[in-house]
Amino acid sequence: MARLRAVAEGLGHAQVATHLNSGNVVLVAPDAATPERLAADLAGALREDVGFDVDVLVRTRAAFDEVVAANPFPEAAAEDPARVLVTFFAADLDPDPAFDAGAYGDEQVVWAGREAYVHYVDGMGRSRLTPDVLTRAARQAGTGRNWRTVLALRDLLAARED
């Protein structure tokens, strides 16, 4: 993730850190940067660096804190954070009305704003509710992180000084 950090630093961002090899970066952006502008700038710089398009989703610290607070599965997340997934999307969700999570097993799905929360009751490994199924139901591309990663990113964000 050194390359990702270098790209973000090259755009003038401060306190840049990445989390493992997850493709997540936290940073302090200039005051005038909107999430949309930041996403476009990072996507452009990454395209220039790696030679292909990379989807970039941005959340402010406040928005990320709201994602954590809105978790509809707090008990499941506390018991086994690997079984709760948050999928982040660029735009507000308008999921396919024909989507039925029950058709994929015991998984529970809650659509909320620009995120989908999924509780994989029996774990993700054998679930038929794959990330591809979820993004098709959402009718837009997204990127999922398990609850352990969400909390690690929250902690990295909290450590940034404005």
From TrEMBL:
<protein>
    <recommendedName>
        <fullName>DUF1697 domain-containing protein</fullName>
    </recommendedName>
</protein>
<dbReference type="InterPro" id="IPR012545">
    <property type="entry name" value="DUF1697"/>
</dbReference>
<dbReference type="Pfam" id="PF08002">
    <property type="entry name" value="DUF1697"/>
</dbReference>
